[in-house]
Amino acid sequence: MKSREQEYKEIFIAEALEYYDALNRHISELERKPQDDQVLAEIFRLLHNLKANAKAIGYLQISDVSHKLETAFSLIRNKELNFSDEVVTVLFDGIDLLGDLINNIDNDSFGEADPVLLRNLDIIVDSLSDSTIELAKVQKYNTSRNLSLSDLIYIQIKKLDHLLNLVGELMIDRDRILSISRELENDDLKSVSSHLYRITEELQYSVMDARLVAIGSLFNKFPRIVRDIAVAEKKEVNIELSGQDIQIDRNILQIITDSLLHLVRNAITHGIEKPEERIKKEKPREGQISLTARSDRDNVIIRLTDDGKGIDLKQVKKAAVDRHLLSAAVANELPDIEALSFLFEPGFSLAKEVTEFSGRGVGLDVVKNAIDSIGGRISVDSVKGKGTTLTLQLPTSIAVKGALLFEVDEIFYAIPLMHTESVVSLDKDELHEVGDVLVANIKGETITVAYLHELLNAKETAMRLGDKTKLKGQVQDIIIVSYNNRKLGLIVDKLYRQQDIVVKPLSKPLDKIDLYGGVTLLGTGKVCLVLDVPAITRYFTNRR
């Protein structure tokens, strides 16, 4: 894995070379139209950005030359310096020097900047008008310069999206060919299909790797954001970052950017107390926020922690009852971890006042929907008076997902591993009927259990998911799924294996069926429906 410094350096070089090409283009335009203020402004902007970027990453020579050129163009913009032939020549040479410095950034043997040239730049910079310029002998612009291309290129994300979709299609066909080669028992076909598998897998990971960016590109924006919100809220807040070098799909990072910003705002406005309040509680006057990232197999875990007031669960339950989301009797018996899940219900808020940064009708449900859209998970843990932790579990790729395959009524289904907690086998006698649902004690937790056959095939009016007589066999295979702090056991007929799948959206009108999140094609050629765990979990919550 690349170091953070190496990645920042590559980004800098790619941007710097773009700036260099643009500067050459614009200065040529300016030579033809010296009074074009728009072109002058763009040249000034490019040089200013290049100077700042080079200084930030430690390339002081590039920063110095950019600064001198920026100052020269500032004089031209302010009509204090004419864009004469002599000045044009020096500025062209100065921009060429920038190109040489950028292209030879790793070349230790590359000499210092040309002192004749730098003196000319200084003369222009130090002059208040062109009448006082005393140019030294200048080597005229060399039209026979060698052209060179960068080893780095920018690629539009939509092109990588298209490429990844094609790889997904290839994976489906690859699995089909592998299955056929096993059926035919042809050695040549087996050899070719085995090679195809390796090449396709390598291609898949190569494309996915090309889409990865360091999470620090987002994390490093937060210290300034935290400072601004804290000042507006009259609070003192410090943020600690870690895991900035963790790699994640660029599209996923883009999708969660607004969500993470909303969560950080919430942590400051609703979580962290004002300094005087913290002192009364014998806490440090400065609140602490921690934003961390780490890799976990095929997922990235982002954790946001604050040491604020925490969440009052009694308040949450009362608000849920007031909004008629559940009855008072059910609320009293509700486990704490399930009570926290109501924070993600549409329109649910405990905010008592509207501030500049919160309380404007954008709730945690918007955050949750964004994370759901990429097949991720969000959970919350809080201790009143101590603080709150939000955990985001995100896939590293959108198109290809790990899934658990199983069978119900001779039809293949898949559940994304992101929502799969565990798989257990229970005797039928360990399932208990409570009302119209089944429950089981699994690892000390009482979990609602449903037979998927009944859920997927029975009519709403006739549905009674607590009828054990409809179960096949004495021992039941159960997949424990989790969503929004709620667990549910799904009884299946037959378990198969874990497998990477490419999920395709369902066609109309099937796309309106909430229980299905998409479809994939197995190597055998059979269609496999992908279950939507959030929709199934919501269904049971509403029934209760």
Automatic annotation (TrEMBL):
Location of the Histidine kinase domain: 159-398
Record-listed E.C. numbers: 2.7.13.3
Residues with Phosphohistidine modification: H48
Domain spans labelled CheW-like: 400-542
Domain of life: Bacteria
GO molecular function ontology, one term from the record: protein histidine kinase activity
Keywords from the named record: ATP-binding, Chemotaxis, Kinase, Nucleotide-binding, Phosphoprotein, Transferase, Two-component regulatory system
One Pfam family it belongs to: CheW
Domain HPt: 1-105
Annotated catalysed reactions: ATP + protein L-histidine = ADP + protein N-phospho-L-histidine
PROSITE patterns: CHEW, HIS_KIN, HPT
Function in brief: Involved in the transmission of sensory signals from the chemoreceptors to the flagellar motors. CheA is autophosphorylated; it can transfer its phosphate group to either CheB or CheY.
Name of the protein: Chemotaxis protein CheA
Protein source organism: Pontibacter ruber
